Amino acid sequence: MPTITNDRHDKHSAPTIRAYLGGSFDPVHSGHVQMAMTVYHCLLPIATLQQRDLRVSLLPNARSPFKTHSTDPAHRLAMLKLATRNTPLQINELELWQTPPVYTIDSVRTLRQRYPNDCLIFIMGIDSARSLDQWKDGLRLTDYVNLWIFSRHGMNSVSDVYNDVRADNLVEENLTKQETAALQAQLPTPLQNLVIDAPTELLLPPSQTLADSSALKNAYKGHIYIDNRPVMAISSTELRQQLQSTTNRSNTTAPAETQTTFVTPINAIISNTTSNPFVKWLNPAVYHYIIAHQLYSAAQFR
Ligand SMILES: Nc1ncnc2c1ncn2[C@@H]1O[C@H](COP(=O)(O)OP(=O)(O)OP(=O)(O)O)[C@@H](O)[C@H]1O
Ligand SMILES: O=C(O)c1ccc[n+]([C@@H]2O[C@H](COP(=O)([O-])O)[C@@H](O)[C@H]2O)c1
């Protein structure tokens, strides 16, 4: 079945499909979960049909090479666990406990060595994809994995193009093609010709020309799928900023209470029913965890 967690690899079974959403998750928000679940739901029917295991994982890093600070990994991991409860999503701790900065190229090399024959997919937003030429060996990620890229509304993304095209009254199919083309044009030039039309192409067996003796050359890699389905327009940065003012307010009204909540058991956090002003963007249990642990308050906010 698609979500079996046994990592044993049987060389006679169909290659497992492994998708990873890398991020800081500081904190994890509904946009992250939406992206990972979109990939999961898109691939599940194919995985089921082909009797292949499907694993979609969130891959939290110790600290992004582009960032100078991240919240304690233990807190970010706890929030990820809360956000993925009752979902088929998994959490991969490969990057989390390393000494930062952690580079994605090193992780995908490790994953490819670990799973030479599997279909590996790295998920990211277009803002990340646009900057791949500034990552360590970012243009070489596709030597090891496929990429699945989501548009990102509200971040100078395809939304402006979308509105312009709408005004032209074009049919839906053309809208989609133009959106995809607009996103493709934002990729670093060497990656633009790796874009394929459908996610199913990521799962096609490697072509005969690649099927030589090298395990790496046999791997599913080297393609990019651009998914222009909208993802909730939210960022962890915005949430941290909003939470700062909220937690500051609660800190001034109930200091004793917030101090004692630091040891609140996780069950109490999960069953906490007090209102969550961020319900659209934050899993309620994640919100209560943040409040209980005084995360993103003025003292910790950067
Ligand atoms: N709302 C979103 N829409 C599309 N992609 C997103 C969205 N939120 C995050 N991503 C993508 O998810 C990956 C992990 O993101 P990350 O954990 O850095 O979250 P973030 O919201 O971008 O955080 P921050 O604001 O701290 O940079 C990145 O590739 C990012 O582009
Ligand atoms: O490897 C790199 O050079 C690199 C540079 C910037 C970001 N990344 C990865 O991109 C993902 C999103 O990063 P960020 O900066 O949005 O938190 C996360 O998995 C980072 O490890 C990786």
From TrEMBL:
Enzyme nomenclature, EC number: 2.7.7.18
Record GO terms (molecular function): ATP binding; nicotinate-nucleotide adenylyltransferase activity
InterPro entries in UniProt: Cyt_trans-like, NadD/NMNAT, Rossmann-like_a/b/a_fold
CDD domains per the UniProt record, alphabetical: NMNAT
Domain Cytidyltransferase-like: 20-241
Record-linked Gene3D superfamilies: HUPs
Pathway linked to the protein: Cofactor biosynthesis; NAD(+) biosynthesis; deamido-NAD(+) from nicotinate D-ribonucleotide: step 1/1
Source domain of life: Bacteria
Keywords from the UniProt entry: ATP-binding, NAD, Nucleotide-binding, Nucleotidyltransferase, Pyridine nucleotide biosynthesis, Transferase
GO biological process, one term: NAD+ biosynthetic process
Pfam families named among the record's database cross-references: CTP_transf_like
Reaction catalyzed: nicotinate beta-D-ribonucleotide + ATP + H(+) = deamido-NAD(+) + diphosphate
Entry's family note: Belongs to the NadD family.
Function: Catalyzes the reversible adenylation of nicotinate mononucleotide (NaMN) to nicotinic acid adenine dinucleotide (NaAD).
Protein name: Probable nicotinate-nucleotide adenylyltransferase
Organism whose genome encodes this protein: Psychrobacter aquaticus CMS 56
